[in-house]
Amino acid sequence: MAGVAALAGVGWVGRDVPAQLGGRLTGARAERAARSPRFRDGTFHNPASTRTMVADPGRNLVKELIFGKQKRRPDGGVPLLRPSAAPPSDPSRELNVVWYGHASALIEIEGHRVLVDPVWSDRCSPSALVGPRRIHEPPVRLDELPPVDAIVISHDHYDHLDMDTVRGLLADQSAPFLVPLGVGAHLDRWGVPEERIIELDWEESHQVGGLTVTATAAQHFSGRGLRRDGTLWSSWVVAGAHRRVFYTGDSGYFDGYAEIGAAHGPFDVTLMQIGAYDRAWPSIHMFPEEAVAAHLDLCGGLFIPVHWATFNLALHDWSEPVNRLWVEAKARDVRLAVPRPGERVVVDDPPAVDGWWQAIA
Fold it and tell me: Which of 73, 185, 253, 273 is the most exposed place for a label (fewest CB within 10 A)?
């Protein structure tokens, strides 16, 4: 009886795992993916040859993960803020960013709101019991978000695309989901109506009110189960009549940033991935210094770091990414804002960097 109960418990806990894995490309969606210049031999590819892991002789990553001395969590609680009211401004020139933690952010631009990579679940994992768990709570509940005009997803990894968050947004919001090619298969499996799924290849755009949202290149990979690269990954440009925003998604440093800057910049603000890097996977995540170089390649104005502080996804210290970023930004004279989760940054009047994370690191 105990064995039966244990098996039943495992089955109950894992009941959502198959759905969390998402869908597979079939039919018209698969046919469209196959026409992409990035698709061959059944999977998507980066323009340059990349590896998700590189050999590091003499290093045992598993041992380092378990016994490493890195300080991967802060000593104190991460300070959370509820977004203050947006200051009065000319709607045609409005540009604010609210960072909710990790890569989740709200872009307020020229009277529109664009939500990027929303993840509100406790873990970025197919399981509710195992996998990286939040270091801090979301600063607001999902149902407290204001109405948004578009929901943008960079790729299908669990820390960027979360089934429960998507289902919550499906109930609370009416905005379309703008996703890279193939990612619509996951949304379709989770009940998102076809008319709310907009799939884009790199350099394809979709109009949202007065905004043009464009999928742009990134150097990364995809996959939610054992199969990799069955869907595309992207960075994103959000452009109004007067203001422009760039979001990296996840990416290694590559020469595509200069090309994006030339084609779509300059940008008033960039949201740049700075965390979860390691010399074992240098091609697919940027080091903080590379993120600054990419920002300059993009002709960026204000730099706002994302992809740090919320989930422990690498072996570096919790605060190392932002400490390295601050040093490099000062050395290269880059305008920087490091908001607390939930803090609204007015791009034209950003808060001074005050090192808030150092008090809890």
Answer: 73
